[in-house]
Amino acid sequence: MRKDGQHQQKNTFLILLIVISALIVALPYQPWLAGGIIPKVQAFASWLLLIPLGALILKLLKRKRRTAVVFMVLLAIGLIPQMHIAPAGQSETTGELRVLSFNAYRAEASSNELAALIKEEHPDLLILVETNERLHQDLTSLGALKGLDFRTAPAPAGGVRDTVIFSKNPMTEIDSGLSERDTGWFAMPTVEVDVAQQRVLVAGVHVYPPLKDAQQWREGLSAIDTWVHAHPQSPMILAGDFNSTSGHRLYRDAVAGMTEASGLRPQSTWPQAMLSFPVLEIDHILGRGVRFAQTRATPVTGSDHLAVHTTARF
Hints:
Blueprint: H1 2-26, H2 37-42, H3 45-48, H4 50-61, H5 65-79, E1 96-103, H6 111-121, E2 125-129, H7 133-141, E3 150-151, E4 163-167, E5 171-173, H8 180-183, E6 190-195, E7 198-206, H9 215-229, E8 236-241, H10 249-254, E9 259-260, E10 283-288, E11 291-299, E12 306-313
Parallel strand pairs: 1-2, 7-8
Antiparallel strand pairs: 1-12, 2-4, 3-4, 5-6, 6-7, 8-10, 9-10, 11-12
Helix pairs in contact: 1-5, 4-5
């Protein structure tokens, strides 16, 4: 009787483990908010995959091959949304942009360290999120903005935006569907930049975090989705703080068909200040009609976000 009871317990535990793993795997495919609960859990979808991975390893060590196959299939299904698979495209390039994107954490990031990073990377395109004119003045006095002669409107401009785009190349700020009324929060500046005799659309992104019921978060991603699909033929770069990971179905829908600069696997950028290392990729540089090379993420004191920098080749 004791052996039968132990066997029953093992079967119950195995069934429970399979059910939990199936729920984890299904999580990134859900578009629902559930009062803001699902987006919060989805942010950690890649880390939750450690549960079916651990189960798979355990079953392989015990040579339970049939059960191992079940967890292997579940793990594969869960990994698909987490992987950044670049769309196929032509290999020939006609121009490139060095891009640096950074959330300056209410402009409290170290201006000295940020200036040093800008000077080291020599970006053609600089996107600063949670920034203000005081930080820009500090960067100017440190010589970091030399050559970045073109820029969007000040931040905050009447409290309606907190993101500024700087560019070495001539650019024109354009009206778009990313105003504060469209995003449900701050406006996201959009510009046309001249690159190798072609016009490239650029958006500086800051999406409201999925707090409370996450309605504002969904509104921001929906606005990006609408804007991206309103320009289907234009080469494009989106950069900034999306407050979203690849585990969020609504994020993947908004940037469908675009290439992630970080490559095949996510590159964590937050929260740098709270933990010894960042665990979530919520800061992204994405492009359409481009290939990315030499993508890195660098900490800057005073911000809980890493700065992301890359080379975009058109």
